[in-house]
Amino acid sequence: RWSRVKGRLRTSVGEDVYTSWFARMDLEGVQEESVRLSVPTRFLKSWIQAHYAERVLSCWQAELPEVHRIDLTVRSAVRPVVQPKEAPAPVEARRMDGRPAPELRSTATAPVSATHDALGGSPLDPRLTFASFVVGRANTLAHAAARQVAEGRRGDPVMFNPLYIHAGVGLGKTHLLQAVTWAGNSGSERKVLYLTAEKFMYGFVAALKTQTALAFKEALRGIDVLVIDDLQFLQGKSTQAEFCHTLNALIDAGRQVVIAADRPPSDLESLDDRVRSRLAGGLVVEMGSLGEDLRLGILKSRVAAARAHHASFDVPEEVLNYLARTITHNGRDLEGAINRLLAHSKLNNQPVTLEMAEREVRDLIRPQEPKRIKIEDIQRVVARQYNVSRSDLLSSRRTANVVRPRQVAMYLAKTLTLRSLPEIGRRFGGRDHTTVLHAVRKIEALVSKDTALSEEVESLKRQLQE
Ligand code: ADP
Ligand code: MG
To answer: How far is the CA of 402 from the centre of ligand 1 (A)?
Structure first.
């Protein structure tokens, strides 16, 4: 019967998908209405649960109508990728279209070995080097640390590991990480690998599919400097576990790890505590928003780069000053502004003027800075609305009339300020960040159902923004 079910599955998902995900699935037993199946890795298990649960169940039901439940387990006789063994978890029948993500499909048909592919690294932009990186108050420390890492030689003692750089969008993280990679790969005999977190994820997934996961891991551990960009996109329990192993293995072997993300380690909510503390154990540097002088410097360096190919292109000082003063703090917009001026002046064969600049970059102008809301203000306004005192909100009292307002206040603090969860926890009488996270999730869930609460929250937001 098992072979008939497999046959149905194969027809239902297609040969490619079947070989990728189900070829190593075994039947462990059938008991009344439940079927026990096993796969060799936790990763396969969670992938099948998330994407094919319904298919698997319906293929069984076609053969054995009384089956209502599939228990998927991880076979224990394999290398301990994560925990050696875990309790069977019921596969819930969820609505899914049952097709793997497009990225995964494309790797399935790629002729080259997935390991090789994944370890080819993510593409590097030849312009993102130390030479074109402008140093200013916002990034002095991050730049110095990155340089230090890039100049290291094989076997040098590692000063800070990992080096963890965080900053908002467009503030130069990718630029700095790629600069480290370029410098490292050109100067020394070290092997520096730049990977986006997504690439890491897909590399790992692809390696599992072609059963080269071990080779993938070995190859990763042979790197001298591993550079991972946009860590906040690392998703999935088993890729995270894999990342954690790789991180530990590299650090323990004295190899350098450099990471960038859009938030500090403590705010990477989906990551395991152990990974977070390991990340926080190196050097964590924040890059601030690009100040006006830095913006001006970046604009100038962009103009200089453009002039290498377009000698007649020039941007007058007053235009540069105007752009530095008005454009958003995002480095991408600075680059975009110069590109537009270049395109416009080339196409129309006109010199760049202030008037042209004002017209061309109108949509990149920074809006008025929004009012900065303070946590104290939130506490005060919430306390007034719910008729409790501010010290009630900070206290450990757990009566319902205090708990809900406190959760609302924490939710507002997370959504209206840039404070991290641990920081908010501290400001609410020294609570743990998980308590804050719980409050935020709770209120998020409630406002989508409870219109009265949702209106209260909206009204509080309005009061605070006025
Ligand atoms: P992030 O990865 O933090 O989102 P990027 O590194 O992609 O930001 O930077 C966005 C753009 O701004 C890129 O074109 C980058 O070259 C430029 N940029 C940001 N900071 C600097 C800097 N300090 N010097 C030169 N260019 C910068
Ligand atoms: Mg980036």
So the answer is: 45
